[in-house]
Amino acid sequence: MIKLTNVCVFLLVLLAATTASAQDEPAPFTPRPLVDVDIYQVDAAVPVYGDTVVAAARLAEEERYTFLTLDTSGAPPVEWVPDWDPSEYGWEPADGPVLFLKASPDGQWLCYDQWVHLPDEFATEFEYMHQAELVMLSRPDGSEARPIAVTIQVGGGAEFDFTADGSRIVGQPLIKCLPTPGSYARFLELDGADPDVPPFNYYDVTTGERGYLESLNIGDGYWKCPYSDNFRLENNWYAEHRFGNFMSGEILGEWIEPEGRDAFLSNWVLPDAMLMSNPGRTGLLYVDGRFMPAPQDCWHCYCWLPDGTFLFSLDDGFTVRYGKVDWSSFTIDWATDASPLADYLYYNWTPLADSSGILLTTWDRGGELLWTPVSKAGAKP
Questions:
Q1: Is 179 in contact with 150 (CB distance < 8 Å)?
Q2: How far apart, in whole angstroms, are the C-alpha atoms of residue 219 and residue 134?
Q3: CB 6 within 8 A of CB 14
Q4: Any long-range contacts for 287-292 (C-beta under 8 Å, 24+ apart)?
Q5: Burial of 45 (0-12, 13-18, 19+ CB in 10 A)
Q6: 365 in the Ramachandran plot: left (φ > 0), alpha (ψ -120 to 50) or beta?
Q7: Chain segment 233-279, per-residue pLDDT in tens
Q8: pLDDT digits (tens, 9 = 90+) for 65-81
């Protein structure tokens, strides 16, 4: 029989605790469910602050919609609904999915859509449009909820974003009416020609004032930079690119692909430039229309984290890497392997606010919400 000294026992206990801790620690770049898809099927998800996430989901068994507050610690989801009553604003309630969900850069506000019905007293001949879609503003827990506009699913929208300072919600399309049943019914009856409501495509979060950016409405859709107010406009989607700014409203530059060929822009990589990832034409496309070729093809950027790190590939996605890239010279400062993510290239990749991980959501709203931890490193861009 072997007798263990107190020191040996202490070392064995310490080793066991360390091993258990290592086993509990999630492996970097290995996606795992953030919610049980058999209970919650997620339509949209957005980071708000730290490792906290807000998701809009439907309950699979109950056929109802709710919001969830989540975090990556494994705590149970917290359900909530916005603290507003549509009937107090004259609307009839309607249950429906949240099709867009955005958070302000400081995590203090959410913007999303809410389905409602016109009450019978406002009946019009356009019965198929009596279900309206309101653009909503609320705190991340659903408090202070209020409708700010009416939108519709068409073309590249509805799509809305906060400006980098959080002062504006900008997007399209915004119907030329106020978010009240009477104004919306008047819009329908006058076929969108209500002279009492000027066109607008942004809302001031602080003052409630509305304004109009001419540049935003010259494209089929837009794609905003996550760390500046620059955005890309699309016409013919992959051949013509124009760039504007959410604050100034100006068109900054354009790029028309020679011979009408597709120009695939894989992501924003600088506040004023996107990565173009085309065979034979890979490089940076700046918002003023300048193109700077890369020394080699096959570069792709999948996610730009707030701390200045990137998830990227330089072999067409066969190998995914995580690290720091100097995009002005296409040199890698440092990188580590993130190969488990190669199976998720067709998901949406969204970084957590504290850069500790990324969210993975499906393009087809299949209800899956995954997250994977990454290492914190680098400096905020």
A1: yes
A2: 23
A3: no
A4: 287/230, 287/243, 287/252, 287/253, 288/243, 288/252, 288/253, 289/243, 289/253, 289/254, 289/255, 290/253, 291/255, 292/328
A5: buried
A6: left
A7: 876 556 778 899 999 888 899 888 776 566 677 799 999 999 988 77
A8: 999 999 988 889 999 99
Q: What is the pLDDT of residue 2?
A: 38
Biggest alpha carbon–alpha carbon distance for the chain: 95
> Strand pairing partners for 151?
133
Other Cβ atoms less than 10 A from the Cβ of 265: the count is: 19
pLDDT exceeds cutoff 80 at 27: no
pLDDT, position 14: 39
Give the pLDDT mean for 189-193: 77
| Alpha-carbon distances of 218 from 128, 135, 215, 380, rounded to whole Å | 28, 21, 6, 32
Nearest residue to 91 (alpha-carbon basis) of 119, 71, 113: 119
Q: Is the pTM of this model over 0.90?
A: no
Closest CA relative to residue 118, chosen from 87, 97, 96, 147: 87
Residue in this structure with the two tokens 């000294």, named with its chain if needed: 5
Q: State yes or no: pLDDT of 227 exceeds 90.
A: yes
Cα separation, 35 vs 352, in Å, equals 16
Q: Considering only CA atoms, which of 270, 272, 268, 238 is closest in space to residue 255?
A: 238
